[in-house]
Design a protein that fits this description.
This protein has one domain: Peptide Deformylase (Alpha-Beta Complex). The chain has four helices and seven strands, in the order H-H-E-E-E-E-E-E-E-H-H. By secondary structure, it is an alpha+beta fold. Bound molecules: ligand GNR and nickel (II) ion (NI). Nickel (II) ion binds next to helix 3.
Length: 180
């Protein structure tokens, strides 16, 4: 049995901002992608758990497909969700603000305001249509992952001032790493 915790699965390198792959719109998964997605999902889960993070979208590992994984890792029982072609089917008018981070902007956090509750439709690993009604952290995480599939990062929800502050720090950190 293949374990979902990444013990026997190769990890994927996570792309850091700024990078064009994070700004591109990912394309929907179709039947011909079944094998690609079957191979990709365990690696995405392993990479997310190892990071650690509570979500990971395929563009973050340089794959331009509408695929994401989520596990809030609350308590000690894993609750993995694999999302194929996810869509926000409904969103509450009520908004909620919470601090978000992103594995593609490591070490940077900011308050992001989004719909407080969402209904998300997606295909599961078996190609079955599923629906989740989420609030709280799960609602924020699902919207954050679907944003990635549209080339949107959490900093794109901030004022230009805050966004540029974070992106400039990212560039500075990258230059320091390159010259180290
Ligand atoms: O690990 C993550 N934490 C997080 C916190 C609040 C809202 C969204 C997230 S997702 C993020 C991992 C990530 O970058 N997913 O794309
Ligand atoms: Ni992210």
């Amino acid at each position: 049995m293949r374990r979902m915790d990444g013990a026997d699965v190769p990890l994927l390198p996570i792309v850091l901002a700024p990078d064009p792959v994070l700004k591109a719109r990912a394309r929907p998964v179709r039947d011909a992608d079944a094998e690609t997605v079957r191979a990709l999902l365990p690696r995405m889960f392993a990479t997310m758990y190892r990071a650690p993070g509570i979500g990971l979208a395929a563009p973050q590992v340089s794959v331009g497909l509408r695929v994401a994984v989520v596990d809030l890792m609350e308590g000690d029982k894993p609750a993995p969700i694999a999302l194929i072609n996810p869509q926000v089917a409904a969103a509450s008018a009520e908004l909620a603000t919470r601090e978000e981070g992103c594995l593609s902007l490591p070490g940077h956090y900011a308050d992001v305001t989004r719909p407080a509750r969402v209904k998300v439709r997606y295909l599961d690993v078996y190609g079955m249509g599923q629906e989740i009604e989420a609030e709280g952290l799960l609602a924020a995480c699902l919207q954050h992952e679907i944003d990635h599939l549209d080339g949107v990062l959490f900093v794109d929800h901030l004022s230009a001032l805050k966004r540029n502050m974070i992106l400039r720090r990212m560039l500075k950190e990258r230059r320091q790493k390159e010259t180290a």
